[in-house]
Each structure stands twice: as structure tokens, then as C-alpha cells.
Amino acid sequence: MLLENKNAIVYGAAGAMGGAVARAFGREGAHVFLAGRTLTRLDEVAGQIRADGGSATTGQLDAMDRTAVEAHAARVVQTAGSLDISFNAISYKVVQNLPMTDISLDDFLAPITQASNTHFLTATAAARHMTAQHSGVIIMLSACSSMETRHEMGGFGLANAAIEALTRSLAGEVGRAGVRVVGLRANFTPETVPGITASDYASNVRDTLLGRLPRLQEVADTAVYLASPAAGAMTAATVNLTCGAII
Fold first, then answer.
1. Per-residue b or e along 215-230, where b marks 16 or more CB atoms closer than 10 Å to that residue's CB
2. Do 24 and 50 contact (CB within 8 A), yes or no?
3. Residues of the chain with pLDDT under 70
4. pTM of the entire predicted model
């Protein structure tokens, strides 16, 4: 198993993307610490991990709360002995499908502020413990809106560009301590939105070279790869899972 004996925190593990990544980490042998605001859903994902033979622990927290994030990371290290992987999949408030000229400044700034805050808090909390133990992988989740031009994404594009910039900057600071920081840039993943139909995302598909959008399992499996020793030479890079929407 690629992540055997590793301890991983997945923030936003109650959501579709975070849950898929958490389950993939569990299948590959990691003890997964699921963190988020909805404990019942976290417990459900933890139950799925255990049913597949994995190991999981849940913890309710707000990933925008620095005190809560720091305390949770410290508990993980205290109880498990190390913090080896950190993955952030929390969602943001985003106003989309409107021209940028028609949205308010507050709506534009909301995803930028939220994405920057939570990735800074979770990544730096992990980095403190990982640099002390001279190992670890921090994975940051962005989206193809970081480089898109026409999909009326409001502030979401700048939010993801900020995440990718943070990936590079933090990697430069912690690399010599044995810590890798990598990004994962996905395209819109239909499985994360219940009830959506193909016509709802037809324009996204037209922008791809593969004629489709990424599957949730593909994103989760790539996160496993990035966290594993197989990607040991990779840092300060963002992997492109846009099905060719971004070249």
C-alpha cells in the first residue's frame, strides 16, 4: 500500500471531494483524520473507510479557525506520533455565472479571502510539525479557474491562483526540511454536485481536449500519488487534472 503507516488530515472530509480523497488515503493504508464542521457526515465517511479495512478518526472543527486548526494538528501528532499528509478540500462561498461587472466587491472577495485563509492556516499548521519531523506532504486543491478566461467564475479564479502561488511559496520555505508542498488543479467534477445534468456543464466539456471532465476517483487517486513516495521528487508544482482544458 502506498501510504502504509502514514497519518493524514483531510479538511472538508464531509464533502464529496474530501470524502473521496479520505477514502482513497484509507484504502492505501493511511490512518485518516477527518476534519470538518458536519460530524454526522464525517462519521459516515469514517465508517466507509473502516468497512474497507482502513483506519479513521473524526474531529469537528472550522478550518477558518486558527486556534482550532492548530489544536487539532497538535492532537494528531500527540496521539498518532506524526503528521505525514495534509489535504484541504473545504468549500467556499462563490458567486458564479454572472459577469464580473455585475457582482459586488464583497462577493468577489469572499472566495479569495476564504481560500487564502484556510489554506494558509492548515498548511502552516502542518508545516510546523512536518519541518520538526523532517518529512511530510502538504497537498493544496485548486481548480482550472486559476487560468480560465471566460466562465464567469467571479473571484473563484483569483482564489485558486492564490492557492497555487501559496503552494510554490511554502514549498520554497520548507523543502530543505524534507517537506513537499504540491498542488492539484482539477476541472469541474460533476460527481460533486448531486442532480446535475450533462447540459449544465456542456460548455466545460467543450473546452477540454479529452471531451470529458475528470472523474472523482481520478482526483482521489492522484492525491494518493502526490502523497506517496512515488512523487518524492515533486514539490512546488501543481498537477493538471483538467482533461486538457488548461494546456
1. ebeebbbbbbbbbbee
2. no
3. none
4. 0.96
Residue 83 to residue 10: CA distance in whole angstroms: 11
Are the C-beta atoms of residues 224 and 3 closer than 8 Å to each other? yes
- Contact criterion met (CB below 8 Å) for 185 and 142: yes
How far is 179 from 246, CA to CA, in rounded Å?
A: 27
**Among the listed residues 184, 77, 178, 183, the one whose alpha carbon sits nearest the alpha carbon of residue 136:** 178
Instruction: Read off the C-alpha cell for 213.
Output: 471532465
| Residue 15 region by backbone torsions, left for phi larger than 0, else alpha for psi between -120 and 50, else beta | beta
pLDDT tens-digit profile of 16-75? Answer: 999 999 999 999 999 999 999 999 999 999 999 999 999 999 999 999 999 999 999 999
- Report yes or no: 118 and 130 within 8 Å, Cβ to Cβ: no
